[in-house]
Amino acid sequence: MQASMENHALVAFASKHGATAEIAERIGQVLRQAGLPVDVLPVERVGDLALYQAVVLGSAVYAGQWRKEAIRFLEAREAELAQRAVWLFSSGPTGEGDPVELMNGWRFPEAQRPIAERIQPRDIAFFHGALVEERLSLAERLIVKGVKAPLGDFRDWEGITSWAVGVADALKQGGS
Length: 176
Ligand SMILES: Cc1cc2nc3c(=O)[nH]c(=O)nc-3n(C[C@H](O)[C@H](O)[C@H](O)COP(=O)(O)O)c2cc1C
What we know:
Blueprint: E1 9-14, H1 19-33, E2 38-42, E3 54-62, E4 65-66, H2 68-76, H3 78-82, E5 85-91, H4 99-102, H5 113-119, E6 123-127, E7 130-131, H6 138-146, E8 152-153, H7 157-172
Parallel strand pairs: 1-2, 1-3, 3-5, 5-6
Antiparallel strand pairs: 3-4, 7-8
Helix pairs in contact: 1-7
The structure holds flavin mononucleotide.
């Protein structure tokens, strides 16, 4: 008997320093634990989307923008994404409190809003990120210092996990 592609999910991510990659891995792990076959891949390594019924796409945020490779992926795959169950997430803010409040109301990159509206994602999440000083370039350190962004790992693993459980539940109910 042929394996069904019905529930295959893709978690695609864009990460510069690794924090978003680990969030994507965690989401993939939750989906796998729910019995769904999952690929977790950097966006630039994603092949044919025909394989997947659902796509979770996330990017780190730098200066209010998604990473270029994530924007490229959204633009190039818009038509296919619009035919699938899609969840989007961004990650970035450090410090305690709601990410949207920490980033003064920012939820999703302005320039990609029209694409997101056409794709009609099931949800758009905004997760805390991590700023690990040793991983940053000198220029990045100066920017981070200039905007007084708190250093440290503020990723909310419980919040990420429960969001991913919601994705898994929706997919197991047939993605509706
Ligand atoms: C130079 C610089 C600019 C940043 N700008 C933003 C920003 O505009 N909004 C935000 O939420 N986070 C911002 N961040 C925080 C990053 O998004 C956060 O460190 C994230 O976890 C990085 O993910 P990555 O390790 O996957 O690249 C910035 C970080 C750096 C170093």
